[in-house]
């Protein structure tokens, strides 16, 4: 950049280098997504298309930024955890936060058509973002536990609320009054006794959210392994998760992972295995070119 008499304005820029040896969390959160979901007629209480789109956008972020060791998503938010020793963008907080947020948002728009098919995007989605530092392993575990506990509380409420509205015939205001002051046990009882629904049998992705980890898996019909980003729906509050996936806190390469069932679409698209959505993604790329 050529020097000029105007270059002094750079001195007004603030230095925002993050503290060393701290876990870096970037959390993106949908802005006004209540209105956005209504406008696009999201299914209640959970829309798998929306959750799959959030997960696909998060995978794109992790593919781009290799120092993200784990990500956790639920509803319209995603948290990305960068390794403690990362030097990405010289640990400049504004750059880290804005790059991750902008890539996530643009990916959400880019992949929209894959998951919502004939539903036209009627308004631009946008996400706010924040960056927080956690100095200890206990801190980062507690942060992720907090987000998963939040997922459980919100989903139990929403599942019960929409059961009362859709199946029980109550208005939104009547359902809110019915649930006011209730505990988790009360909501479970309403679901079971009035709607024959055992909350514990609801899909784990709804109850526990989605965890994204880097793992090494064996490619189908091959002896070769490939590193991919794997979606999990597990309890990360207890010790079992952290013992099984010890590479997260030790910041080591992802361990070998074996699927009992068929590969998730999120993994197939990384392995370039043709699925309907993978085919649509390639068409999107061609159109973008």
Can you put this structure into words, describing what you see?
With 289 residues, the protein is an alpha+beta fold. The chain has two domains: 16-150 and 205-289, tRNA(His) guanylyltransferase (Thg1) (Alpha-Beta Plaits); 151-204, no CATH class. It contains twelve helices and six strands. It has helices at 33-39, 48-64, 93-110, 112-116, 137-167, 172-179, 184-195, 204-208, 239-244, 247-250, 265-270, 276-288, and strands at residues 23-30, 68-74, 77-82, 127-134, 210-218, 225-232. It has a six-stranded antiparallel β-sheet with strand order 4-1-3-2-5-6, sandwiched between helices. Helix 2 packs across helix 3 (93-110). The longest helix is centred in the middle third of the chain and has 31 residues, at 137-167. The model has no long low-confidence stretch (mean pLDDT 92).
SSE topology:
Elements: E1 23-30, H1 33-39, H2 48-64, E2 68-74, E3 77-82, H3 93-110, H4 112-116, E4 127-134, H5 137-167, H6 172-179, H7 184-195, H8 204-208, E5 210-218, E6 225-232, H9 239-244, H10 247-250, H11 265-270, H12 276-288
Helix pairs in contact: 2-3, 5-6, 5-7
From the structure above, extract its key features:
289 residues, 2 domains
CATH architecture of the largest domain: 2-Layer Sandwich
* Tally of helical runs: 12
Name the structural class: alpha+beta
Strand order of the largest sheet: 4-1-3-2-5-6
Q: What is the CATH T-level topology of the largest domain?
A: Alpha-Beta Plaits
Concise summary:
46% of the residues lie in helices and 16% in strands. With 289 residues, it is an alpha+beta fold. The chain has 2 domains: 16-150 and 205-289, 2-Layer Sandwich (Alpha-Beta Plaits); 151-204, no CATH class.
């Amino acid at each position: 950049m050529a020097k000029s008499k105007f270059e002094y304005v750079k001195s007004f820029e603030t230095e925002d280098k993050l503290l060393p040896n701290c876990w870096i969390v970037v959390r993106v959160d949908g802005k006004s997504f209540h209105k956005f979901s209504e406008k696009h007629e999201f299914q209640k209480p959970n829309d798998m298309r929306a959750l799959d789109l959030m997960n696909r956008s998060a995978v794109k972020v992790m593919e781009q930024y290799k120092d993200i060791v784990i990500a956790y998503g639920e509803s319209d938010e995603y948290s990305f955890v960068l390794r403690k020793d990362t030097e990405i963008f010289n640990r400049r907080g504004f750059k880290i936060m804005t790059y991750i947020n902008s890539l996530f948002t643009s990916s959400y728009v880019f992949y929209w058509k894959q998951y919502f098919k004939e539903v036209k995007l009627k308004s631009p989605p946008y996400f706010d973002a924040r960056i927080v530092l956690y100095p200890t392993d206990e801190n980062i575990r507690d942060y992720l536990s907090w987000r998963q506990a939040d997922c459980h509380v919100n989903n139990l409420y929403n599942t019960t609320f929409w059961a009362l509205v859709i199946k029980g015939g109550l208005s939104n205001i009547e359902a809110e009054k019915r649930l006011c002051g209730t505990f988790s046990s009360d909501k479970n009882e309403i679901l079971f006794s009035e709607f024959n629904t055992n909350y514990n049998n609801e899909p784990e992705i709804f109850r526990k959210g989605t965890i994204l980890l880097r793992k090494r898996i064996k490619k189908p019909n091959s002896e070769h392994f490939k590193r991919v980003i794997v979606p999990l729906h597990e309890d990360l509050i207890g010790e079992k998760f952290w013992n099984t996936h010890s590479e997260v806190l030790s910041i080591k390469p992802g361990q070998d992972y074996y699927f009992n069932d068929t590969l998730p679409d999120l993994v197939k698209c990384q392995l370039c295995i043709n699925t309907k959505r993978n085919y649509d993604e390639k068409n999107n790329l061609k159109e973008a070119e």
